[in-house]
Amino acid sequence: MSPKYVGQRISRTEDPRLLTGQALFVDDVNIPGMLHAAFLRSDYAHARLNSIDVSAARSRPGVIAVYTAQDMGDAWQHGPPLVIPPPTIQNMVFHTRTQVPLVKDKVRLIGEPLAVVIAESRYIAEDALEDIIADLQPLEAVGDLERALRPGAPLVHEELGSNLAAHFFQEKGNYKSARQQADLVIQKRILIDRGIAAAMENRGIVAHWDPKSQRLTLWDTTQSPIPIRNGLAGMFGLAEHQVRVIAPFVGGGFGPKIMMFYAEEMVLTWATLQIGRPIKWIEDRRENFYATTQERGQVHDAEMALTSDGRILGVRDSFLHDTGAYDPYGLTIPLNTQCHVLGPYDVPNYYAETTVVFTNRMIATPVRGAGRPQGVFVVERLLDLAARKLDMDRVEIRKRNLLPPDVFPYNNQIIDQAFAPLVLDSGNYLPLLEQAATRIGYQPFIREEQPRLRAEGKHVGIGVVMFIETTGVGPYEGARVTVEASGRISVATGVGTQGQGHFTSFAQIVADQLGVNIRDVELVTGDTAEFHWGTGTFASRGAVVAANAIHAAARAVRGKILRLASKVLEAPEEELELADGQVRVADMPEKSISLGKLAVLANPLRGAVQPGTEPGLEATDYFGPQYGATAAGAHAMILEVDPETMMVEIKRYVAVEDCGTVLNPLILDGQVHGGVALGIGNSYYEKLVFDDNGQLLNASLADYLIAAATEVPRIEVGHGYTLSPLNPLGTKGAGEAGTLPVPALFAQALEDALADHRLEVVEMPLSPNRLFELLQAAQESASGR
Amino acid sequence: MDDRHRVTVTVNGAQFQQTVEPRLLLSDFLRHDLGLTGTHVGCEHGVCGACTVLFDGQPVRSCLMFAVQADGHEITTVEGLGTMDQLHPLQEAFRDAHGLQCGFCTPGILLTLIPFLEDNPNPSELEIREAISGNLCRCTGYQHIVDAVQLAAQRTSA
Q: In this complex, do A251 and B40 lie within 8 Å of one another by their Cβ atoms?
């Protein structure tokens, strides 16, 4: 059976609804009697809550209820940890501290919720926030990672005696002895700061406890509806079947919408259980800067030991990771960082040491990339600086260190975020690097074009970097595929969707298996009433784990179709073919039956069926990979810096990706473009700026700059196709890949553009201002001042 | 608050009469009072452009206006373009060129582009990028949006 849809640039089934304003997002849910919630949030990053007086708010007309931590009684509890640290790593210190629904005694991060108002309208609810008197005694706040670990630093959790959240190390080979044999050791301090995901849709929840049916329904902008359902049921003493969580159309996820449980999820659920009416809370954009998780803050002390011909002997990376005030997400981010420092390279000796630090900042959980961009930045920077010292070409030093195609599966001997050894399942890295260099015209540029442009006084630079991405981790996903009496196919899976095109790419797989038109395949995602086994959309795993579950379920239905049709058409199964919504005997098209009719026969109203027969043409199946599939890629770009304004113009951008089997190249290109756009923001525009008191100074989209159409260049996408041997479709994830290498690429190209300044970029994100400062500093050190 | 005002607004060709608080945002009025939830709210401070609607034919940010300001005016929202079965040519081009992913910013982008394409039926890539530079999209990296606009322009002039 040759695929008709998989691999094709199919336009998306979900688009007409989205394009005409008919798609349901959480804020579009409107239920008669619905109330609206607003949260009072702390203006301090660190403070003692002495008292809170909500009496005036309660008496405001239109206010239904005002709740504080005290009002929640025994229902007030810390959120459960979402991800535990890998039990397989030895000698680990890990202190679990999880978020609270409402502050009881101490504020630990700016914007932490103190009280909630439930009112007839959001306008009234916000009015009533002004009526609340919260007596907060400010405490010294801590945001700087090194300062946080010094004796005498303000403590986020006093009972721990320090701000150390976790400490662990992993080792491959013996870095110390490798270093002794090195001709060159590059040692750098590398800083990466925080940003936000900034999905265009802020978070939102509608929680509805219906006392008559004894059912709780929650519409939630979550990436993870099933664990939300299971967790809420457990937290509030309900049976799982009493709770339905729906993640309808979600306006972008990018990681933070996988976090659970947000304070608002706990509070709204509890509040609707008290009031018995639906309650809506929609995060506003300013709240999004305070109430939604963030990422990327790390400080690395990294070194690379090399031979004089540019071969890596080993890498040592000791880094601090900012987890914010709580650590419900365990060690996913720093583990990803540790793993991605190894990159696509042959690093025989590696020592990685991580110290996770509590600060008075928002909780850190994955943002598209999830610790990987930091790891890529570290190794790529060290390679660039080594190449400079060795007077070696940047592409050449990478070529000398790439893992060859015959080493896979390649065990890197450390544990990854999925608790499994970091085994790279497959890969062919050199062609990706060569393709990127060729497409950007690396050699002609550095030989001819760049010298010519430099002679004209232009500051143009080129960069080429590589990366891997661990994707498609388990544990599993599942799906149910059903042939309906109409002949249409319905598919339900547990993962939610936030714009990835699942309605189309998953339908392509099913349509190929069942020989139907793709427009006759209807997907339901993210509704626990439709499918209630699975974990969620994260870690670039939809096209690997969910897609293979759907593939398995569709194949099982195909088997059922063939078995029944063989009886009905009185022909052996191997002579049957599925096409155009029919089962027919090959070469005898008059002997055929439509899938719809067959579905009716499979679900008779009268008569007897054979013992052991399952009714209908339906199957549920699951897929859990042995370990993750590793995607890889190489990006290249040419940029020009305006020496007056320090503004950067990206002249060309090439992204070469290898994510195995491509389900839909149109959708894949879009994923790559979007990933790169975020990477550009992470490199030159997006940075959260905090003052010494932990105040966030740029909590608006006017001050925190997201790259617009004028900042993002046209991106040329190339592909490699190394199929994953770990799943039947051969897919690898692609959702985050575009973002990973961009800061490293930006740094290299900037250094090249400003080569005469001997600029060294060892921090991200930059900005025009920051680049100006770095150039000033470079000039001052060059002139010996 | 009994300081309420009667407003008469024509939205997508239909006339609506409602009594509203003076502080009610136009975006909230459209979404919650009229049930036209295709207009999305992304920032409520006029930066992201998701809530863009046509106000007497010109793109405005409905989060920066009050409903009372719309009294006597004509508004077009995304629901006033094509239907699911009969997409507007620009909507069709967005589908064909994959100009949307999560689709949250899309209505605002469509409504920004409609008057732009009327004024400039054959725009260059740079002109398109400048035209949508006040609309933020976090999913697409804008490239397929640009492609969609070019496709729509080509089809219209063909």
A: yes
CATH (one of 1.10.150.120, 3.90.180.10, 2.60.40.10, 3.40.50.970) for B89-157: 1.10.150.120
Nearest CA in chain B to A288: B43
Among A19, A500, A669, the residue with its CB nearest the CB of B106 is A19
pLDDT digits (tens, 9 = 90+) for A307-347: 999 999 999 999 999 999 999 999 999 999 999 999 999 99
Render pLDDT for A527-569 as a digit per residue (tens, 0 to 9): 999 999 988 878 778 888 999 999 999 999 999 999 999 999 9
Q: Do A673 and B141 touch (CB under 8 A)?
A: yes
High-pLDDT (> 90) share of chain A, %: 90
Q: Confirm whether A478 is domain-assigned.
A: yes
Chain A residues 185-204 within an 8 A CB cutoff of chain B:
197-202
Alpha carbons A659 and A677: distance in angstroms, whole number? 19
Q: Which of A15, A21, A706 sits opposite B100 (nearest CB)?
A: A15
What part of B 121-150 touches A (C-beta under 8 Å)? Answer: 125, 128-130, 132-146
Q: Is residue A264 part of a domain?
A: yes
Shared domain check, A400 and A483: no
Shared-domain flag, residues A467 and A519: no
More confident residue, A785 or A729: A729
Q: Are residues A662 and A762 in the same domain?
A: yes
Per the structure, the count of domains in chain A is 4
Candidates A15, A667, A738; nearest CB to B95 = A15
* A191 and A320 housed in the same domain: yes
Would you give the end-to-end CA distance of chain A in angstroms? 72
Distance CA B141, CA A673 (A): 5
A715 and B141 within 8 Å at the Cβ level: the answer is: yes
Question: Same domain for A433 and A358?
Answer: no
Q: What is the number of other CB atoms lying within 10 angstroms of the CB of residue A250?
A: 28
Domain boundary among A419, A438, A454: A419
* Nearest CA among A467, A337, A378 for reference residue A186: A378
Are A655 and A738 spatial neighbours (Cβ–Cβ below 8 Å)? yes
Residue A775's domain is classified under what CATH number? 3.30.365.10
Matching residue, tokens 């991200």: A764
Stretch (H or E) spanning A58: helix A55-58
- For B83, name the nearest residue in chain A, comparing CA atoms only: A20
Under 8 Å CB pairs connecting chains A and B tally to 187
Closest CB from B45, B81, B84 relative to A701:
B45
Report the alpha-carbon distance of residue A46 to residue A142 in Å, rounded.
8
Superfamily of domain B5-80: Beta-grasp domain (3.10.20.30)
Residues of B in contact with A249 (CB under 8 A): 102-103
| CB A525, CB A493: distance < 8 Å | yes
SS3 call for A399: helix
Q: What is the mean pLDDT of the segment spanning A616-624?
A: 95
Measured distance CA(A322)–CA(A123) in Å, rounded: 36
Confidence of residue A1 (pLDDT cuts 50, 70, 90): low
Q: Do A700 and B45 touch (CB under 8 A)?
A: yes
Same domain, A317 and A383: yes
Of B37, B45, B96, the CB nearest to A21: B37
Q: What is the pLDDT of residue A83?
A: 84
Q: With an 8 Å Cβ cutoff, are B103 and A677 in contact?
A: no
Separation CA B62–CA B50 (nearest Å): 9
**A711 backbone dihedrals φ, ψ, rounded to 5°:** -100, -20
Residue A137 to chain B, least CA–CA distance (Å): 31
Its domain, for residue A555, covers 474-623
A708 and B134: CB-CB below 8 Å?
Answer: yes
Tell me whether B115 touches chain A (CB under 8 Å).
no
Q: Determine contact: A706 vs chain B, CB below 8 A.
A: yes
